[in-house]
Amino acid sequence: MPASTLACAQRCIDVLSAADGSAHSPLYTVMTMANTLESTRQAWVIRGQSRSRRVGNWPSWFARNTVEKPLLYLHSAQSSAQLSALADVTQQRGILCNDIENQPSPWPRGAQPSLPLWLAAHPRCTPYDPACGEEARAIVLAALRALYVDGKPGFYYLALHDQESAAALSAQDCEGVLKGMYPIRRNHAGDVRLLGAGRALEEVQHAARLLEQDWNITAQVWSCPSYTRLAREAAAAERWNRLHPTAPKRSCHLRECLAANAAPVIAVTGYPQAIVDQLAGYVDARFVALGAGSVQAGAPSRYWIVVMALRALADEGRTDLQQVETAMARYPLK
Fold it and tell me: Taking a C-beta distance cutoff of 8 angstroms, is the pair 132, 160 a contact?
């Protein structure tokens, strides 16, 4: 990494680290970080709605800026084709932030189903779906270090929503954010484990309270900002173990987090179910994946999460199937 680029990145990290870290939504947090970066003149901050930087003008604009600086791009891409074009123009390098969730669209989360699937399959992309501003802040700072200090290739992607959700994160939590998951509510004797990402995490937390209040079932709750990063690390560890049968086995963050017990795992996303299906082969317990279209057209509601948790426990013989029927009659399932 050129010394000038590293110096710009370090200046950006120092300024952002010293800035106000108050609790806000992921979108507001990143917009604030973008304003701060823009004022330093140490980064390229591009806003998709700017008329002066239309797609056709990007290549010439980058050509005039021969010294690489950290790139933060704020955009609204509803399809994989749009995002693919953006990634190509930015030479698949930078921090791309998408606020399409707030745009009118017939698709769940404002994006066509192909978009999250393209992100998960793209080898140069590290996609995140932060649930709160603190998660988004930790991811942007880590991306600056990884791309422009350590010189790693690729680009980071953040899906941003504008719903405030406060969470005080420790240094260990921030490390978990980057790896893909960290505990929000961790009962060591939990009967079931609930995983959630982005806005879906709020429904997961409500479901955990309903399970305890209505069914006397305790639940661990984990925030999973990147199911894809968890799955990729798990796949890499499994491949290494396969190729090195006599060496000590490598573990992965997913298995380390879920090693405490064998309680069923319910993983929830607002994206299509295929995003959480990536984890299925690496969870050593009964696993249920829920996403947009799994049980209802949009993201699964707290009531469906409760029902599916009860069903997973019933399939394990830990509760009665009659409770599942009772829950389905009790809650407003749509």
Answer: no
Please compute the mean of the pLDDT values over residues 290-305 and round it to a whole number.
91
Q: Which two tokens stand for residue 273?
A: 């179910």
> Letter for the amino acid at 190?
G
Vertex 277: Cα angle to 103 and 166 (nearest 5): 50
Dig out the tokens for 232 from the structure.
Answer: 């990729």
Return the closest-CA partner of residue 174 out of 54, 36, 21. Answer: 21
DSSP 101: G
Q: Phi and psi dihedrals of 130, rounded to 5?
A: -65, 145
Three-state DSSP state, 219:
strand
Count other C-beta atoms under 10 Å from residue 225's C-beta: 30
pLDDT at 107: 72
- The answer, yes or no, to whether residue 51 has pLDDT greater than 50, is no
Q: Domains plus CATH for the chain?
A: 3-159 (3.40.50.970), 180-330 (3.40.50.920)
Residue 189 pLDDT level (bands cut at 50, 70, 90):
confident
How many of the other CB atoms lie within 10 Å of CB of 323? Answer: 18
Give the Cα separation of 97 and 27 in Å (integer): 9
Residue of 152, 157, 73, 160 lying closest to 121 (CA atoms) = 157
In angstroms, how far apart are the furthest CA atoms of the chain?
68
Per DSSP bridges, beta strands 219-223 and 182-185 are antiparallel
Quick one: tokens of 206?
């409500």
**What is the Cα–Cα distance from 264 to 240, expressed in whole angstroms?**
27
Q: From CA 22, how far away is CA 29, in angstroms rounded?
A: 9
CB atoms within 10 A of CB 286: 17
268-281 pLDDT, tens digit each: 999 999 999 999 99
Q: Which helix (H) or strand (E) holds 37?
A: helix 26-40
Query: What tens digit of pLDDT does each residue of 141-178 get?
Result: 999 999 999 999 999 999 999 888 777 889 999 999 99
Residue with tokens 């995140």: 128
